[in-house]
Structure to design on (104 residues):
């Protein structure tokens, strides 16, 4: 309701503007046109450079999404790695002599 009243008030103020009702002489129109074109446009100040969509802050995914990604990462890691060898006792043959026998 207040927005509707505000809208009606703005419309009333636009209609009641006395400068819009005044007529200008025909000779003054070209002077005003040249006067406005004489001034160069001043660019707006740019406070921050445009950096694409990098200003969007990435939020941390929820619990279920994190668990899903964790499962996928574990599955992918287990697929890409070679199977692990069994850990146990390594049996080795007796050493063979490679040293020359001492000479007497």
């Amino acid at each position: 309701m207040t927005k509707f009243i505000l809208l009606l008030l703005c419309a009333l103020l636009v209609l009641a503007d006395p400068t819009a009702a005044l007529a200008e002489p025909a000779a003054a129109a070209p002077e005003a046109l040249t006067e406005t074109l004489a001034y160069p446009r001043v660019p707006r100040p740019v406070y921050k450079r445009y950096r694409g969509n990098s200003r969007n802050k990435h939020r941390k995914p929820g619990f279920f999404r994190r668990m899903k990604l964790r499962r996928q990462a574990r599955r992918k890691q287990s697929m890409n790695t070679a199977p692990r060898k069994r850990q146990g006792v390594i049996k080795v043959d007796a050493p063979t002599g490679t040293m020359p026998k001492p000479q007497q």
